[in-house]
Specification:
heterodimer, A: 290 residues, mainly alpha, 2 domains, 73% helix, flat, B: 315 residues, MetI-like fold, two-stranded antiparallel sheet, 2 strands, globular
């Protein structure tokens, strides 16, 4: 433990110790209320009846907890189908990002073909382009692909292909591959391994941590994304969870909408609690684009 | 990485006994380049289709007009039409207000929280999980929670109940044109601040402890140490996150869409991004939306230029 703003000695002794513990307990209580409080309110609020949620002052614990709102949300909003869709898009996104982005990062890091740096620069330049600026031309491209003149509306490719164009992933993976010693690759080449074989048998097994980070980010990205899936998945059968809940929110009782929102949030929260170490280290390792 | 250090050391390089002829060398070079591009193909295809091409197409579209499948060049007509839209200036005013308010709240709070969390030696993991948890929620889920439960304008809402408990004046939140923006910024900050806190924490852990030691020996108090050690030492990351936050908040979209049903009470929530969405996907004016996108790009580019100027000047 390196020294921070306040020295260890000051915290350990006398008055400093009381101040430290008082501050810690205060922060623990306040932070729990601020960050878990709304979630508690959300989960228990959806357990209340329509009358109970409208009463003043609101009750801290539901008086007659009922799971009717959750059941209604599950059945009326067809959440099972929406959840399957979202999961399907997320898994596909992981697959295509892992295949194409690792291949590209490997080529840029180890094979280094002619003009590779230009390609990398053009990819990284897309990080500077705000998403809202290109959303209209992206949509126009997705509904009418150039040359083939086919549309991708309601097709999972409309979600998978744009996600491969993720410069942040390429940057993260390339930087990791750069740190793998060149001699290892040379040794494999001498043994007659093809570039594909080298990638598969040497690079990838060493890169498990970073591949995990990329996969988790892909899943949470698809789960959280809203505007793009709303645009390219217009029919009710192909919607994602967030889009489906939003589409139903107008004509559905608010307790049911919140119950649906709780169900939609469970997978990402569970993923976070399991992989929190990887997620947090991945965030601070490559940083910047959230 | 643990796996990396345990990797076998290979110091012996392959020995080349005979120099290959110039022709085979050239042939191999060509083959190596082709192999390299074969690996890049999938990514290049996707970047071209969904990033590089749309970027150019957006600019081209903003100078065109398409009616019944016939596309013509119309010069600056789209820009003129967009600027004359009465919502245009309201949207920019709202967007700048949101960005400014988010800078005051969403930018200062994570830094203070990070400084605070960095001092604690207990419950470190728990506190980090707490702060980052909202980032993992789908924004639509979190915003419905705020819309229906927290910002309920009656006294049954969470925020009003808390305010009442402390005998503070309650608010109409999204029903009130003056509270709409602060309410959206509060929700947005709650959802997004976790990432900034973790990035600041990583930066704070890189500050050498001797600097604090020396400052303390020189008689610098707590605030002085923050001002003279913590802030200068994290200057670059502070500037970078400020820039990223401005770019992100200028594109605010889902908060007005869900919390304020788009425009909000008396147009108090309409943002530029929402206007792009309106023009492009409801008023069937994709060219106008593209023009608005180009305007937004220019404004954000101006911000970036100022940022680059400010950060490079000091060195």
């Amino acid at each position: 433990m390196t020294r921070t703003l306040i020295s260890q000695a000051q915290i350990r002794r006398g008055r400093g110790r009381y101040v430290y513990w008082a501050a810690l307990v205060t922060v623990l209580i306040v932070f729990t209320l601020v960050f878990i409080g709304p979630l508690y309110w959300m989960v228990t609020g959806a357990l209340k009846s329509g009358q109970e949620i409208a009463q003043t002052p609101p009750s801290l614990f539901p008086k007659h907890p009922e799971t009717k709102n959750y059941a209604d949300a599950w059945n009326n909003l067809n959440l099972a189908k929406l959840m399957f869709n979202t999961f399907y898009y997320a898994i596909g996104a992981v697959f295509f990002q892992l295949v194409f982005d690792t291949a590209a990062a490997y080529a840029l890091s180890k094979l280094r073909p002619i003009l590779g740096n230009v390609v990398l620069a053009l990819m990284l330049a897309t990080l500077m382009i705000p998403a809202m600026v290109v959303i209209v031309p992206q949509y126009v491209t997705a509904i009418d692909l150039p040359f083939v003149h086919a549309g991708l509306l309601d097709s999972p490719w409309a979600i998978w292909l744009p996600l491969v164009a993720n410069a942040f992933n390429i940057f993260l993976l390339k930087r990791f591959f750069d740190s793998i010693p060149e001699d290892l690759i040379a040794a494999a080449m001498v043994d007659g391994a093809t570039p594909l074989r080298t990638l598969w048998s040497i690079i990838l097994p060493m890169s498990r941590p970073i591949l995990g980070v990329v996969s988790i980010f892909a899943i949470t990205y698809v789960w959280k994304d809203f505007l793009w899936p709303k645009l390219v998945m217009p029919s009710p059968e192909t919607r994602t969870l967030s889009v489906g809940i939003y589409a139903f929110s107008g004509g559905t009782p608010m307790n049911v909408v919140v119950a649906a929102s709780v169900i939609a949030a469970i997978p990402t929260v569970v993923i976070f609690l399991i992989f929190q170490r990887n997620i947090m280290s991945g965030l601070t390792a490559g940083s910047v684009k959230g | 990485m643990a796996t990396m250090t345990s990797a076998p050391e290979t110091s012996r390089r392959p020995r080349v006994y005979a120099r290959p002829s110039a022709r085979t060398r050239r042939g191999r070079k060509l083959r190596d380049n082709l192999t390299g591009y074969a690996f890049l193909l999938g990514a290049i295809f996707c970047f071209a289709l969904f990033q590089w091409f749309p970027m150019i197409r957006g600019v081209v579209m903003s100078f065109q007009h398409t009616r019944r499948g016939v596309t013509t060049w119309v010069g600056f007509d789209n820009f003129v039409r967009i600027v004359q839209d009465p919502s245009f200036w309201t949207a920019w005013k709202n967007t700048f207000y949101f960005t400014g308010l988010a800078l005051v709240l969403g930018y200062a709070v994570p830094f203070v929280v990070a400084i605070l969390l960095n001092e604690f030696r207990h419950f470190k993991g728990y506190l980090r999980i707490l702060v980052y948890l909202p980032v993992m929620l789908p924004p639509a889920s979190a915003l419905f929670l705020f819309k229906y439960y927290a910002y309920d304008p009656s006294d049954a809402g969470l925020f009003n109940a808390v305010l009442k408990f402390f005998h503070l004046p309650t608010s109409e939140w999204m029903q009130s044109p003056t509270m709409t923006m602060p309410a959206m910024v509060i929700a947005s900050t709650w959802m997004n601040m976790g990432a900034a806190v973790l990035i600041y924490l990583a930066a704070l852990q890189n500050i050498p402890g001797e600097l604090y030691e020396a400052a303390e020996l020189d008689g610098a108090g707590l605030l002085r140490r923050i001002w003279n050690v913590t802030i200068p030492q994290t200057r670059l990351i502070l500037a970078l996150l400020a820039m990223l936050q401005i770019v992100a908040t200028m594109q605010v979209f889902i908060e007005p869409l869900i919390l304020a049903n788009g425009a909000g009470t008396q147009d108090s929530a309409t943002s530029v991004a929402y206007l792009i969405y309106q023009h492009g996907f409801f008023q069937n004016d994709l060219n106008g939306a593209a023009a608005l996108g180009v305007i937004m790009l220019l404004v954000l580019a101006a911000f970036s230029a100022v940022y680059v100027r400010l950060t490079t000047k000091q060195d």
